[in-house]
Each structure stands twice: as structure tokens, then as C-alpha cells.
Amino acid sequence: MKRMVTILAGAGIAMSSFAGTAGAAEPVELNSVISKQEQQKMINVAHRGASGHAPENTMAAFHKGFEMKADYIEIDVQMTKDGELVAIHDTTVDRTTDGTGAVGSLTFDEIRQLDAGSWFGPEFAGEKVPTFEEILDAFRGKVGILIELKAPELYPGIEEKVAEALIERNLHNPNNEKIIIQSFNHQSMQTSKELLPNVPHGVLAGASWANVTDEQLAEFATYADYFNPNMNIVTHEMVADVHDADMKIYPYTSRSQEQALRLFDLGVDGIITDYTEHVYKHPVKNH
Predict the structure, then answer these.
(1) Cβ distance 54 to 27 under 8 Å?
(2) Which of 5, 167, 186, 229 is the most buried (most CB within 10 A)?
(3) Which residues does UniProt assign to the signal peptide (predicted)?
(4) Is a pLDDT exceeding 50 seen at residue 53?
(5) CATH class of segment(s) 39-278
(6) pLDDT at 36 over 60
(7) For residues 201 and 224, is the Cβ–Cβ distance under 8 A?
(8) Domain limits of the chain?
(9) CB atoms within 10 A of CB 232
(10) Which residue in 80, 40, 47, 77 sits closest to 62, CA to CA?
(11) Mean per-residue pLDDT for 19-30?
């Protein structure tokens, strides 16, 4: 069974590279035929949970991602002033809660009192900033967990704390790569890999890595299993080079159907997306 995937723009069927982004993302015509088998292979990663439908990095978003049958929920992990691991993206609480201040300057009790849901919608009022351990306990064995260490340079020892939490739950020898750790801080990933040699790791790559070399990919491959770049710099050549280095590629962050289709056409291994319904594997009717 095959499914024709098309994007119509007037009389044309095409999509140009994204304007205003760094790198040389090539235009891709989105009129390819994607087989059901290919759809099944595409890994669907719910970015900060199903963050297009619920407030990011909250239990509501993670439960929504699980409900929508994502293969992974992606979480951002930081550390409070008193050493608690919490899920939050920004290094301050200002954008996604009703509080202010740096994550690392606030205690867990102070962060726990904040409302992390109202900014997204009144129905999410009272959502709390969850702990790393709460997320592991709620979702281990149910859905994959892609753990991003956010700004680990601000939190000395965070790699050890993450490792301790995983080892305590026997998640340091994961089946089917259902635990992955990634970061933009590549030194942190080397440290984490030494602590958790059986856990797959990934390097995140911003727009400045558009011209990543074979030598750089080979170096990453000594400790990483994934090269996960900004979606706007992904090309057929990059995908091939990453695969040649024996790594997989999960670009971030798809927020439209067109963007997801472009990544399908480029042959990536997975898509990190705010809208898991754009990755066709598990069509879900939203209410």
C-alpha cells in the first residue's frame, strides 16, 4: 500500500528552502510516494512533549505525546539551586511560568510553586514544572525518552545526577534505544557517555554546522550515535554523510506539515516535532 504525499501551492507542487535561516538547505519537491513501510520506520519524537497541544515540558504535554503514540517524548533537563533535576527549556523560568529568575538560582520548592501551564491556556492552569525522576517513573517502559541536557555547563555534576537516576531505575542498559541523551554541549556528551556507555547519545547541531565535515562526523561517532541538526541545514548529502559515519539523524524542530514532508523526502531517521500528527505513522484525531 502506498500513499501519495503532495503539497499544492497554486498550480505548482514544490517547496523552497526556508527563508531567513542559516545554511544551504536545498529545495525539495514534495510529490514523492511514501510507502507505509517507510512511514513505519520514521521515528516520531514529541518535542518537549506534544508541545503544539499542551504547555511544553509539563506532564500534560508528555501524556499528550504518549496518547498521540509518539515513539519518544523529548525533555529538557536542568538543575535547581539545591540540586534537583527538573524539566524546563529556558535557563530562566520567565517565559513558561508565572515566576522570574534563573533555574539555577531557585530552589526546587520555589520552582514547584510556579504555574507552568496558564501561559499556554487556562485549561492548563496549575501545571507544575516536573522533576526528571517523575518523568522517568511515569513513562519508562511506555514510550522512549529523549533527554536533552540543557546548558549543562551551568550545572556542574548534572551528568552524574542524570546517570544516577537512570542507573537507580535500571535504565542504563536500555532495550531498543528507548533512552537517548543529547546536548548542544558536546563535551558534556563525552562525559555522559563515559558514565553511561550502554546508553545511546546524540550531538545537537545548530545552523553553524551546515558544512559539517566527514572528519567532524567521524569524531562525533566515537561517542555519539545520533547527529541531530537544525532541520533547515539538512540536505541529502548531510543525511548520507551521517549514515556513512554510522550515526542516525533526527532533525529539529518541525512545526508544519510541509516541514515534516520535506524531512521525509530527505531520508532522515526521525523527526523532532511539536505536532506528532504531522509524522504519519500513527494518525490521531484531535478533539
Answers:
(1) no
(2) 229
(3) 1-24
(4) yes
(5) alpha beta
(6) no
(7) yes
(8) 39-278
(9) 21
(10) 47
(11) 39
Q: Is the peptide bond before 253 cis (omega within 30 degrees of 0)?
A: yes
Q: Does residue 236 carry a catalytic annotation?
A: no
User: Are 150 and 129 in contact, with CB atoms under 8 Å apart?
Assistant: no
Q: Are 276 and 68 in contact (CB under 8 A)?
A: yes
Catalytic entry in 53, 63, 89, 282: 89
The size of the chain, in residues, is 287
pLDDT, mean of residues 126-152: 97
Active site residue 89: yes
**How far is it, in rounded angstroms, from Cα 267 to Cα 203?**
19
Return the pLDDT at 174: 74
- Structure confidence by residue, pLDDT tens digits, 179-192: 999 999 999 999 99
> Could you report the per-residue pLDDT of 238-271, keeping only the tens digit for each?
999 999 999 999 999 999 999 999 999 999 999 9
CB 87 within 8 A of CB 77: yes
Catalytic residue among 47, 53, 186, 278: 47
pLDDT at 17 over 50: no
Residue, of 28 and 8, whose pLDDT is higher: 28
Cβ–Cβ under 8 Å, residues 70 and 146: no
Please give the average per-residue pLDDT across 138-150, as a whole number.
97
- Any idea of the CA torsion for 152, 154, 156, 159, to the nearest 10 degrees? -10
